Amino acid sequence: MAANLVLVGAGKMGGALLAGLVSSGRCRPEEVVAVEPSVARRDELLALHPGIRVLASLEAGLLEAEGGAILAVKPEQAEPVAGLLAAVGIDRVLSLVAGISTARLEAKLAPGARVIRSMPNTASMVGAGAAAISAGAAAHAEDLAWAEGILSSVGTVVRVPERQLDAVTAVSGSGPAYLFLVAEAMVEGAVCQGLPRDLALELVSQTLLGAGRLLTETGQSPEQLRAAVTSPAGTTAAGLRILELKGARSAFIEAIQTAAERSRQLGHQ
Ligand SMILES: NC(=O)c1ccc[n+]([C@@H]2O[C@H](COP(=O)([O-])OP(=O)(O)OC[C@H]3O[C@@H](n4cnc5c(N)ncnc54)[C@H](OP(=O)(O)O)[C@@H]3O)[C@@H](O)[C@H]2O)c1
Questions:
Q1: For a pocket test of ligand 1, which of 33, 39, 74 has the largest count of ligand atoms closer than 8 A to its C-beta?
Q2: 73 CB under 6 A from ligand 1?
Q3: How confident is the model at residue 106 (pLDDT cuts 50, 70, 90)?
Q4: Element counts in the chain: helices (H) and strands (E)
Q5: Is the pLDDT at 268 greater than 80, yes or no?
Q6: At residue 1, does pLDDT exceed 80?
Q7: pTM for the structure as a whole
Q8: Which atom belonging to ligand 1 lies closest to the Cα atom of 122?
Q9: Which of 93-131 are b and which e, b meaning 16 or more Cβ less than 10 Å from the residue's Cβ?
Q10: Mean pLDDT, the chain, whole residue set
């Protein structure tokens, strides 16, 4: 039976999106075909999502007319796999691949193929993803809506011109890793002050979650929220002074600049 969605590459990002789609109810496992070369990963997917169909490689006739494929392989595999999608007649593709333009994918897909390029992040796994999407040359409003429907079931989606996707990659694609580094550093700081590591991790995790919710739910800017917890000559002011002195702000600005440059570089390889 033809599926509604073909997931090509169910590694970290593809697997996270699949988990989010299933847990949000957007897709039933029976509606999805996952194409994965690794036997171990295929077995894992069958255990995680009973009812899903798994295949080692693409084959013709997998997709129903209204469906599409999600391309979630590594950048170096994206163009050869786009060629395989063309060979099996799949002409609507949501690409999660960093750095590979819609034009490069279109050149490998069938003429007129509809490509939506996106940059999601792994928080999709818990329904709190942040993704940006851009349409390729032949994609219509309904194709963008299709892609938005998939990604919005696992988080926030914004539409951007394709040239901005390198910046998006550097901010929200890589962003969870920056915040995990912040979390690691805060836990070390807590341990240095005598708190047990597991308790420190619990406090830091909840603090990050709480700060994120304050940002998304109060409508206040980061500056306003920071000022609200910074009493004159208080403890937070003392801590923030050290972060500014050590260049935390410019370290983030430069990290994002370097990550965006790396994304542009990957796109030209
Ligand atoms: N991880 C992130 O946070 C993140 C965020 C945004 C975007 N992305 C993008 O998502 C894509 C996947 O990244 P990832 O981190 O999920 O990598 P990954 O864990 O290595 O996943 C890629 C998967 O594709 C499989 N694969 C390889 N060749 C294939 C083929 N011909 N047909 C079907 N599947 C094939 C791989 O199997 P084998 O391991 O057996 O080769 C692997 O399971 C990348 O293009 C990346 O730029 C990732």
A1: 74
A2: yes
A3: very high
A4: 11, 8
A5: no
A6: no
A7: 0.89
A8: 3
A9: bbbbbbbbbbebbbebbeeebbbbbbbbbbbbbeebbbb
A10: 95
DSSP one-letter code for 163: G
19 lines ligand 1 (CB under 6 A): no
Please tell me the residue having the least CA distance from ligand 1 atom 26.
Answer: 9
Q: How far is the CA of 171 from the centre of ligand 1 (A)?
A: 20
Q: What tokens were used for 161?
A: 């011109």
Q: What amino acid is encoded at 182 in this protein?
A: V
Q: What is the largest CA-CA distance in the chain?
A: 68
- Per the listing, tokens 């699949």 go with 18
- The pair of three-digit structure tokens given for residue 235, joined into one six-digit string: 């403890």
Per DSSP, what are the bridge partners of residue 94? 70, 116
Going from the N-terminus, what domains does the chain have, and what CATH number goes with each? Answer: 3-165 (3.40.50.720), 175-267 (1.10.3730.10)
Task: Report residue 2 as tokens.
Answer: 């033809």
CA dist., res. 94 & res. 267, Å (int):
17
In 129-202, the DSSP E strands lie at 129-135, 155-159
Rounded-to-integer distance, Cα 199 and Cα 186, Å: 12
At residue 268's C-alpha, the angle toward residues 168 and 115, to 5°, is 60
